[in-house]
């Protein structure tokens, strides 16, 4: 993602108040089909990432940012969040 740069929301854009779903990818698993068929409760499925590796944020299949998982403190304690470390230049193509 060479085009990652900090961006500021464009509040004057006509779509700026339309909600959008962002998928956060923490990793991928590649079990054998035989292992997949044996899975049950308490099965541990190893991912291709480590706990401290960055997560990737997608809109559809487009990578829009990378970040780090963290826990929200205060009233929402225990809830996961993502602190962005890289953001794509989303103005291109809009």
Automatic annotation (TrEMBL):
Source taxon at top rank: Bacteria
Membrane-protein topology: Peripheral membrane protein
Residues in Flagellar motor switch protein FliN-like C-terminal domain copies: 16-88
Gene3D superfamilies per record: SpoA-like
Signal peptide residues on this chain, from the entry's feature table: none
Chief subcellular location: membrane
Pfam families: FliMN_C
Compartments, record wording: Cell membrane
Keywords: Cell membrane, Cell projection, Chemotaxis, Cilium, Flagellar rotation, Flagellum, Membrane
InterPro entries: FliN-like_C (IPR001543), FliN/MopA/SpaO (IPR051469), FliN_T3SS_HrcQb (IPR001172), SpoA-like_sf (IPR036429)
Family: Belongs to the FliN/MopA/SpaO family.
PANTHER family per UniProt: FLAGELLAR MOTOR SWITCH PROTEIN FLIN, PTHR43484
Record protein name field: Flagellar motor switch protein FliN
